[in-house]
Amino acid sequence: MVKLSVIVPFYNVQQYAPDTLKSLRANARADFEFILVDDCSRDETPDILARAERELPGAVYVRHEKNGGLATARNTGIDAARGEYLTFLDGDDWLAPGYYEQLLGSIEDLGCDFVRTDHVQCTARARTIHRVPQGRRGVVMNPRDAILPADRSTSVDYAYAWAGIYHRRLVDRGLLHFTHGLRTAEDRPWIWKLHREAESFATVGLLGVFYRRGVASSLTQIGDVRQLDFIRAFDQVVAETAEDRDAEKLLPKAVRTYCAIISHHLGSIERFEPAVARKLKSMSAVALRRMPQDVLDDALDSMDIQRATRLRRLRRRPAATGVAA
């Protein structure tokens, strides 16, 4: 039986894929499988992965004939996975040797639905440790209890799918798949659903994932229309949270986070293509009017003056015809 399935989407990362694959080799074990999903790359990535299928122990190569985005590529990997446990890695990141054996040991020792881990962010030669915003380590908790408070960073704000490991029962319960077609912010509805509906989780102080920032092909660096998928992602977060049994308690967190993300994008609007910048403003204004208005009022009152003023001004913006998320 396969103990661990590692799902690794790749898209036009020929420069970084060899390092990623080398780090997977340094984590190989007879009962591990590495599901390498090429999302219709147009560079040399498919050739690199075809070689890896022959040379990397446990490699399973899957190729999309049409680009579907990160969420869809991860779903392809989940559907192909045979492991008792699953985890993720992005095709331009890498791992410390032996990391997955330690990660697997942590969730087996704790016996919970999922475990979240810290990571190392790598920007050029700089290295920064980023920690799960949860103070209790190595203790099994109710995931719902880690969503709040609304005005502080919590576990749902640490949305990196690759910073953790997940038991197969989450797949069986429909909690591990991503929203099909989301090209950015795909982790946000996913992490909220996990924390609302899974039964147990823990955080551990385990470092071993190296997250590469500043990659030119990454959507975090590209100001095209794909970035606007964050609106669809957070619309889903708010809509699903509104249906939760604890909606009155949880909605302020969802709405405040949505507002913070809108403000963040508006604050760096110069990086967007002009047409996309206009669409960002129009779609964000409509999104603000879709939110529960009493909850939105409270969220704006709790934010700093600069962000609150920016969002209130946008909220008053006349509705444009034909604009939808």
TrEMBL record:
Recorded coiled-coil stretches: none
Protein name, UniProt field: Glycosyltransferase family 2 protein
Superkingdom, natural source: Bacteria
Annotated ranges, domain Glycosyltransferase 2-like: 5-133
GO molecular function: hexosyltransferase activity
